[in-house]
Design a protein that fits this description.
Layout (H helix, E strand, L loop, with lengths): L1 E5 L3 H13 L4 E5 L7 H9 L4 E2 L7 H4 L4 H10 L2 H10 L4 E3 L4 E4 L4 H15 L2 E3 L4 E6 L16 E5 L2 E5 L1 E4 L20 E7 L1 E4 L10 E9 L5 E8 L3 E3 L1 H9 L1 H6 L4 E6 L6 H14 L15 H10 L13 H12 L1 E5 L2 E3 L5 E6 L17 E3 L13 H21 L4
Parallel strand pairs: 1-2, 1-10, 2-6, 10-20
Antiparallel strand pairs: 3-5, 4-5, 7-8, 8-9, 11-19, 12-15, 12-18, 13-14, 13-16, 14-15, 16-17
Length: about 425
């Protein structure tokens, strides 16, 4: 059996290694558009490669995977983060789990992951063809005798600028495509595509630049008029707001925000999950315990003083105003500012370290347990090319490894004549 893998990224390389190790008789050709494999993995995690997560801080998979959670759940039954951890350590790559539950190679060098996988591919006899962008994939229509070992599928014809290739089975692992045109090589197959939009971005918000560099941890934030909420550290940037809380919210709201052209209202609760009553009691206690002190000089311990000074001004209180001079209306405004502070989002900026695509090949095209296309037998998908993506923290790569593993298992069964 001949298998063509399109895309030498995380999912494609891992799938090809697992397949060849399990089935040395299967010929595996990996076609990569770029000049080297795993180019994106090399830059992940700021060059350190956050290859997975301990999942300990995640309450439900949906929290990590806003899209594709069901597919990921099934893939994890076969190969989860613990299996991945063991796999890399067995390959001689010691891993470390940070306090924030992100997992990195102990060397803190993404190239160790790239080299380990590249070596494993070469040792397993995977045939890697770089600088081969596949421009079309078609089901071979003119084959009279079945060529696939299952005896049912006539196989596929792949075209690149440099040539035409045939395969009994195809695995598409081309990663996220920011534009629909990036998936045009699959047009002959008439698949359903979810329009791609960016995920994991910062919010452009005017007027916050004086706070640049400030981190508030944790806050809860959400989009006004929706139920989308997230929690974590918030970072003020030159253009607005970023940090885990904002990136997570951008992931949950990726499609919604694209539909409203990145114009929306962000609501921030600066004292995390403290409710209005609790915040009011805190403020009234501060007022009664130090009536003669200036408001700008006394801040709740959870908030940096620079942010407190900014927020009291937003609430209409002067920094030099004494607590005794603060009236009821001002207290009300301060409580509202601390618990539900609203900012206009005026656009988005891509995070320098990580961004992913929401959308891609619709999950309606595939069987979620096998990742095989429902309409085209022996055609599989794995990784970000599917409408599967996650928040930051190693979850995106974990999905790619796990799906690559599942497809390798399916191909092994196919090569064995179906089990
Ligand atoms: C800067 C950055 C940092 C990131 N950091 C992290 C991180 O630390 N942790 C994490 O979990 N996730 C991270 N991500 C996300 C993660 O890298 C991706 O989700 C993951 O790489 C997806 O794996 P994949 O195999 O599906 O696709 P990719 O790794 O993107 O691989 C797809 C491959 O297919 C090739 N290809 C595309 N089209 C064709 C074609 N027509 N013919 C042939 N080849 C083709 C591409 O050249 C590419 O090599 C980061 C993303 C970015 C952009």
């Amino acid at each position: 059996m001949r298998v063509a893998v399109i895309g030498a990224g995380a999912a494609g390389c891992f799938c090809s290694v697992m397949l060849r190790r399990q089935c040395p008789d299967v010929i595996v050709d990996v076609y990569e558009a770029g000049s080297r494999p795993l180019a994106k993995v090399a830059v992940t995690g700021g060059g350190r490669c956050n290859l997975t997560n301990s999942f300990r801080a995640i309450r439900s998979l949906k929290e990590a995977y806003p899209r594709g959670e069901q597919v990921v759940r099934r893939a994890f039954c076969e190969f989860d983060h613990e299996a991945l951890f063991r796999w890399f350590e067995a390959e001689g790559v010691p891993l470390v789990t940070q306090d924030d539950e992100c997992v990195f190679p102990r060397s803190q060098d993404a190239m160790q992951i790239v080299e380990t996988l590249t070596r494993a591919m070469s040792k397993a006899g995977v045939r890697l063809h770089t600088s081969q962008r596949i421009i079309s994939v078609e089901q071979a229509a003119d084959v009279t005798a079945p060529t696939g070992p299952s005896g049912a599928c006539p196989g596929y014809v792949l075209r690149s600028q440099g040539g035409t290739f045939t395969a009994d089975a195809v695995v598409v692992t081309t990663g996220g495509s920011p534009k629909v045109s990036g998936l045009s090589f699959l047009s002959p197959l008439n698949l359903i595509v979810e329009p791609p939009v960016p995920s994991l971005f910062s919010f452009n918000i005017a007027g916050t630049s004086p706070l640049m560099g400030l981190v508030v941890d944790p806050v809860t934030c959400g989009l006004v008029g929706t139920r989308m909420r997230s929690r974590g550290a918030l970072l003020f940037t030159h253009w607005g707001m970023s940090g885990p809380a904002v990136l997570k919210l951008s992931s949950y709201a990726a499609r919604h925000l694209a539909e409203c052209a990145y114009r929306a209202q962000l609501m921030v609760s600066w004292l995390d999950e403290m409710g209005e009553d609790e915040v009011r009691s805190l403020i009234l206690a501060m007022q009664s315990s130090q009536p003669s002190r200036q408001v700008g000089n006394t801040h709740p311990q959870q908030l940096p003083s620079r942010l407190w000074q900014y927020l009291i001004v937003r609430a209409g209180i002067r920094e030099d105003q004494r607590w005794a001079e603060v009236g009821r209306k001002q207290i009300n405004r301060l409580v509202a500012t601390l618990t539900a502070d609203v900012y206009d989002i005026e656009g988005q900026s891509r995070h320098k370290d990580e961004f992913v695509t929401c959308g891609g090949i619709s999950l309606r095209n595939i069987n979620p347990g096998t990742l095989e296309c429902r309409t085209h037998p022996n055609l599989f998908f794995a990784g970000e090319v599917l409408d599967v993506d996650a928040i930051t923290g190693g979850f995106n790569l974990q999905a790619a490894w796990s799906m690559g593993y599942v497809v390798a298992g399916q191909l092994r069964r196919l090569a064995a004549g179906g089990e």
